[in-house]
């Protein structure tokens, strides 16, 4: 349980007017991320605006106490968990306002704690959105966290990752200085100072506000799903579709993850999402037809699938979305695909920020994804290496009832994400309970702590991290997990360390993150 090693420090921080929490239950909760528990915290601070944030950071670091930013809490790579006890964690969830929507200059500015779902809902009545517009965990995941960790999904197939949809930021440095990066309307005016603080996992500064570009929300959509016999064909088709620029999202699952999804997702949640989808159809007759297709498909549409691939397109008019979909379909079929019912992309798009019930398996198992981003030319070889790694450790994994499933997703202009997921029987942690729907969490089996399975999970996670490094992969959500600094040239690493010393001379800003 958390202990307060320096009781006077919290009082000094509270004198800035910020909310400071030091009770054991709060400290224990915030010491966890989705994957594991970090060291004990000294206090949790909840600023309500950038001024409170800056003052509290300054008051904390003046006492030589490390400071750690936390967004929506969706990290599973040690983004805000540290091995160094006695840090102060800054929960930015109360900084959740949309500060400005500029429809003339087509920009939006938000506080760092604003969630992707909240921004999307705010912009919807205006027919606007950001190019990258959120993660599947966007119900809780914050925009500041997305810019700090970098992330993908909605819009990624065409517009890339979250960091590519950022113009400028206000960042709080370790001494409490509020640094404004870039211009209010264009990112590249001289050296890219905004880029220095993107994907830094909070090692260089805490995001206070973020300005992003706006685009018109699409008025027309297209959906298609395909099955493939091999991962080679699946990855080759995905590559062709990504290069063509026809999809806004293109993602798929291996047979294991297909089976996991079919066991995990409920028909009740599908029905709710289906209702959302039907509301978005252009006419009552269109809603009836689309609803009938999904209901008829039920959960049998993936029964014969090997590897699946799902494509979403969009456009200003339906003819444009349909034309892009026709192009993507042609490429998929040319690589051996069989077209299947497009239930999954329809339901996912209709309910883009659904409940976070996938944090545990259908039997209550723990879950840990490990990903790598690769150019298309290296994707098949990397996938083959992952399969070989699992085969090598199959007996050990079977002994602790560990199983796997793999996700793939295109990244516009950057290739493909390959994300094997580990599932193993083990006790859940407080972040799972807090993030999932109460009713769903309550009906899951409650598993006991399983030291042998946990040790195997850590072993396999490290093996996958090392494999991706050997394959030359890049990463999002670097946190304290991926071998970022090992991948840098000596000159680049020296520059990174010099930058860290300049903005954080005492090394108190999220120490250990980014390998610093």
pLDDT averaged residue by residue: 92
Structural class: alpha+beta
Q: What is the number of E strands? A: 19
Q: What is the helix content?
A: 25-40%
Q: Hey, roughly how much beta strand do the residues contain?
A: 15-25%
**Low-confidence regions:** 1-5
Number of domains in the coordinates?
A: 4
Radius of gyration: 23 Å
Shape: globular
Main sheet record: 8 strands, antiparallel
**In whole angstroms, how far apart are the ends?**
27 Å
Count helical runs: 19
Topology:
Blueprint lengths: L6 H8 L4 E3 L2 H7 L10 E6 L3 H12 L5 E4 L16 E5 L6 E5 L4 E5 L4 H8 L4 E2 L13 H7 L6 H4 L8 E5 L5 E3 L12 H5 L8 E8 L1 E2 L3 E9 L2 H14 L4 E5 L1 H10 L2 H13 L4 H14 L9 E9 L2 H17 L3 E3 L2 H8 L15 E4 L2 E3 L1 H17 L1 H6 L3 E9 L3 E10 L5 H6 L2 H6 L7 H20 L19 H14 L13
Parallel strand pairs: 2-4, 3-4
Antiparallel strand pairs: 1-2, 5-6, 6-10, 7-11, 8-9, 8-10, 12-14, 12-15, 13-14, 13-18, 16-19, 17-19, 18-19
Describe what you observe in this structure.
With 516 residues, the chain is of the alpha+beta class. It has four domains: 7-94, Uridine Diphospho-n-acetylenolpyruvylglucosamine Reductase, domain 2 (2-Layer Sandwich); 98-216, Uridine Diphospho-n-acetylenolpyruvylglucosamine Reductase, domain 3 (2-Layer Sandwich); 220-244 and 254-350, no CATH class; 357-475, GMP Synthetase, Chain A, domain 3, CATH 3.30.300.330. 38% of the residues lie in helices and 19% in strands. The protein contains 19 helices and 19 strands. The chain has helices at residues 7-14, 24-30, 50-61, 116-123, 143-149, 156-159, 193-197, 231-244, 255-264, 267-279, 284-297, 318-334, 343-350, 376-392, 394-399, 430-435, 438-443, 451-470, 490-503; strands at residues 19-21, 41-46, 67-70, 87-91, 98-102, 107-111, 128-129, 168-172, 178-180, 206-213, 215-216, 220-228, 249-253, 307-315, 338-340, 366-369, 372-374, 403-411, 415-424. The strands form four sheets. Strands 12, 13, 14, 15, 16, 17, 18 and 19 form an eight-stranded antiparallel β-sheet that branches. A five-stranded antiparallel β-sheet has the order 5-6-10-8-9. Helix 8 (231-244) runs antiparallel to helix 12 (318-334). The longest helix is centred in the C-terminal third of the chain and has 20 residues, at 451-470. The two termini are 27 Å apart.
């Amino acid at each position: 349980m958390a202990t307060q090693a320096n009781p006077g420090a919290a009082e000094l921080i509270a004198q800035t007017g910020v909310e400071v929490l030091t009770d054991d239950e709060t400290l224990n909760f915030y010491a966890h991320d989705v994957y594991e528990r970090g060291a004990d915290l000294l206090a949790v601070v909840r600023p309500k605006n950038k001024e409170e944030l800056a003052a509290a950071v300054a008051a904390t670091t003046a006492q030589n106490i490390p400071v750690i930013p936390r967004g929506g809490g969706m990290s599973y790579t040690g983004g805000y968990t540290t091995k160094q006890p006695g840090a102060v964690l800054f929960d930015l969830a109360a900084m959740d306002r949309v500060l400005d929507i500029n429809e003339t200059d087509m920009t939006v500015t938000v506080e760092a704690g604003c969630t992707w779902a909240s921004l999307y809902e705010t912009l919807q009545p205006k027919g606007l959105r950001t190019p990258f517009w959120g993660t599947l965990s966007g119900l809780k995941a914050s925009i500041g966290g997305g810019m700090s960790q970098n992330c993908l999904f909605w819009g990624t197939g065409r517009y890339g990752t979250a960091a590519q949809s950022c113009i400028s930021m206000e960042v709080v440095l370790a001494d409490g200085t509020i640094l404004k990066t870039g211009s209010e309307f264009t990112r590249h005016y001289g050296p890219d100072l905004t880029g220095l603080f993107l994907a830094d996992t909070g090692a260089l500064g805490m995001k206070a506000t973020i300005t992003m570009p706006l685009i018109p929300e699409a008025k027309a959509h297209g959906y298609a799903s395909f099955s493939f016999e091999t991962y080679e064909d699946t990855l080759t088709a995905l590559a062709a579709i990504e290069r063509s620029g026809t999809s806004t999202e293109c993602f798929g699952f291996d047979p294991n993850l297909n089976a996991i999804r079919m066991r995990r997702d409920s028909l009740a949640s599908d029905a709710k999402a289906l209702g959302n989808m039907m509301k978005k159809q252009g006419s009552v007759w269109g809603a009836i037809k689309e609803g009938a297709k999904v209901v008829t498909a039920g959960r049998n549409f993936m029964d014969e699938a090997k590897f699946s691939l799902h494509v979403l397109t969009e456009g200003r008019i339906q003819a444009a979305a349909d034309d892009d979909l026709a192009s993507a379909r042609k490429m998929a079929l040319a690589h051996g695909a069989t077209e299947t019912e497009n239930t999954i992309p329809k339901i996912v798009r209709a309910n883009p920020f659904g409940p976070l019930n996938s944090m545990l398996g259908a039997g209550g198992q723990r879950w840990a994804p490990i990903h790598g981003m690769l150019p298309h030319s290296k994707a098949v070889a990397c996938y083959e290496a992952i399969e070989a790694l699992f085969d090598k450790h199959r007996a050990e994994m079977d002994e602790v009832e560990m199983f796997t499933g793999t996700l793939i997703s295109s990244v516009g202009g950057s290739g493909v994400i390959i994300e094997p997921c580990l599932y193993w029987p083990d006790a859940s942690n407080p972040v799972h309970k807090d993030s999932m729907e109460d009713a769903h969490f309550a009906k899951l089996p409650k598993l006991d702590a399983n030291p042998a399975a946990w040790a195997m999970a850590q072993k396999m996670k490290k093996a996958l991290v090392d494999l991706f490094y050997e394959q030359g992969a890049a990463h999002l959500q670097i946190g304290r997990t991926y071998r970022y600094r090992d991948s840098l040239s000596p000159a680049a690493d020296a520059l990174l360390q010099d930058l860290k010393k300049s903005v954080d001379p005492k090394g108190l800003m999220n120490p250990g993150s980014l390998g610093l």
